[in-house]
Amino acid sequence: MKKNKDSEWFIHAVLLAGVVVVVFPFIWMILSSFKSLPDFYSFSFWPHKFDFSAYKFIFKETNFLQWYLNSIIIGAIVTLSCLVFNSLIGYTLAKYKFPGRKAIFILILSTLMIPTEMLVIPWYMMGAKMNLIDTYLGIMFPGLIEAFGIFLMRQFMLGIPDDLLDAARIDGMNEFKIWWRVALPQVKPALSALGIITFLGNWNAYLWPVIVISTENMRTLPVGISLYATGDAGGIQWNMIMGMSTLAVIPMIIIFLIFQKQIVEGITLTGVKG
Questions:
Q1: Is residue 49 part of a domain?
Q2: Which of 34, 53, 109, 201 is 20 to 30 A away from residue 93, measured at CA?
């Protein structure tokens, strides 16, 4: 009995240490955003005096709110597109038998092996020819349908009993209604996980947006913040960068706290679906 208690204490101590390691940078970032620039360089953990000058500068001297809006619009549209099209393709590959089905699925999976850095040049050439540079659609089109999402949805769709779909057909449903009203409700954990992962990925995306964006009003949060982090906007003000980062991370924390059950459930079930 004592041995079990000792092991529990050890496990809790290790978990607590892990929490401290993970949370400490966030606490330091938030506190640093309330420091003046000289106070920031004093390397003290707690601000000597809470200073809101960084936030005043962010809201008055930058287009931070526009960048925020751009990130929300892009993240929301890309997420909605992925949920619709990835689930449609996954449903088709899982539940319809047609020549070349396996070859198509393997071809889709093979795209996951291509580094993003190798794709930005053809993406840019395509965007330039279609006049998509520095537009919302130009930023979004590489992520509107993703191979990982197709794979995830197919794996979950395979677990839906064929008898359930056949019963819906007997009741007179067309194929679109079967997908919408029968298949999708069966894979809600996967849809939740895919939606949250997709939104987070687009919220934090940097490489492609920084290439395709050329005007200040079209910048997303990572692109806008990076200009101040590199000094391109006229000197590095770390307290302001910490303030921008704090404001940028708050929605993600809220989303995770609200949907953490769906995230964990979806990711867990992904590993056991055949």
A1: no
A2: 201
